[in-house]
Amino acid sequence: MTDSPAIDRSLLIEGLGKGLRVIESFSDEHPRMTATEVGARAGLTRTAARRYLVSLVHYGYAATDGKLYWLLPSVLRLGQGYLDSALLPRLAQPLLQQVSLQTGETANFSVLHGHEIVYLARSNSPRILSIGFQVGARMPAHVVSPGCVILSTWTPEAFEAWMAAHQFGKFTPHTVTEPEHFRADVARARELGHWVVQQYINPGLGGLAVPVLDRKGLCVGALSTTFQVQAYPREGYLTALLPSLLEAAQAIRMVT
């Protein structure tokens, strides 16, 4: 976890921040909304939200039928700039491909952003049917293995502050929703240097992750694989998948 430098608030363009909040207000649960609904989710008045929405329509980032508004695929260009310029996803990509070839499973590189894991790079399984999270996917940190391993590298103070603000949603009967249980999992992940979750978000699917450290020992993300639980009885994923992940994480550390 790194701290950002202090910002001179007199230099901020508040309108840009509000416009970004409007874009972020859309989600799987709210793909199409009225100006009133967007305003409520973005913390704006209906009038202000409508002005931002009309602007997004004008510049080709949204569409409307006169009442409802929705985002267009062109909004993905805003995130593509990061993926094109960020070094770590590009460094990780060939190593993810190596992991996939060695294990036969989907491999991912992800980071923790706030309270969500964001997947930045992926290599598909050699199998016809590939499972796992696509690039750009965001998942609550407590339901995927990268969440535990990244948080396991944080200071106790930073971790407890994060815990106090996190919402432990339940997705399957196996999802860990008790803070003390999750706290114990993170502590165990710190001891092991890896972590596995099974059926926390999707029945039948599991995930194994290791933290990615730079040469200074700071965590810069996580490498993980997604697999079908029934394919690895008796913790067989540890011998089949973990060595490749650790090797790839070490390779990234050598060049960052």
Quick summary:
With 256 residues, this protein is an alpha+beta fold. The protein has two domains: 9-78, Orthogonal Bundle (Arc Repressor Mutant, subunit A), CATH 1.10.10; 86-254, GAF domain (Beta-Lactamase, 2-Layer Sandwich), CATH 3.30.450.40. The protein contains ten helices and eight strands.
| Helix residue percentage | 40-55%
**Spans with pLDDT under 50 lasting ≥5 residues?**
none
CATH fold name of the largest domain: Beta-Lactamase
Quantity of strands, as a count: 8
User: What's the gyration radius in Å?
Assistant: 20 Å
Number of helices: 10
What would CATH call the architecture of the largest domain? Answer: 2-Layer Sandwich
Overall pLDDT:
92
Structural class designation = alpha+beta
Span from first to last CA? Answer: 16 Å
CATH class of the largest domain: Alpha Beta
β-strand amount: 15-25%
Listing every helix as H and every strand as E from the N terminus to the C terminus, the arrangement reads: HHHEEHHEEEHHHEEEHH
